[in-house]
Specification:
A five-stranded mixed beta sheet has the order 2-1-3-4-5, sandwiched between helices. It is of the alpha+beta class and 151 residues long. It starts with 6 loop residues before the first helix and ends in a 14-residue tail after the last helix. The chain is 31% helix and 28% strand. The protein is globular.
């Protein structure tokens, strides 16, 4: 099990979720290579590119991100995603534990629309993530595309 009991994790989560703060993401890191304890290593006010810049190829990390997107010219939405990052240089034992630890992280960072497993920074593609969020939201009808019932 991952130790996600550090109070700063819950505080950073609440900060990202709040509409009253500018914080849009948080990043969790293990406290050491041998530890199963997670801590907040960074927070920020930027977009997915800012988060990607913080991901380390030598680490397994978890990022919780507010994503803003438009369904059409008249509406915007904000949804939350959970990125489960396993960098290319992560050891075999840590890789094996991440899937189990992800369940523990999800119990604390519990409100999100989709999770995004990533091993390469190219796996975190904003357009693909927005498409997944639109589909998960259930209210996306395209941009004027009228599909017939026979399709």
């Amino acid at each position: 099990m991952a130790d996600v009991s550090a109070p700063e994790i819950a505080a950073a989560y609440d900060d990202v979720r709040s509409d009253k703060t500018p914080t849009t993401w948080l990043l969790l890191d293990y406290t050491s290579d041998k530890s199963n304890a997670l801590t907040v290593s960074a927070t920020g006010m930027g977009d997915l590119d800012e988060v990607k810049a913080k991901l380390d190829d030598g680490k397994a990390q978890f990022a919780y991100v507010r994503v803003k997107y438009a369904n059409d010219v008249e509406s915007t939405r904000e949804k939350f995603i959970l990125i489960i990052w396993i960098g290319s240089g992560v050891g075999v034992m840590r890789k094996a534990k991440v899937s189990v630890h992800a369940a523990d992280v999800k119990s604390v960072l519990r409100s999100y629309s989709i999770d995004v497993p990533a091993r390469e920074k190219s796996d975190i593609n904003e357009m693909e993530i927005v498409t997944r969020l639109q589909k998960a939201g259930g209210a996306f009808y395209g941009h004027g595309n009228n599909r017939s019932a026979t399709q």
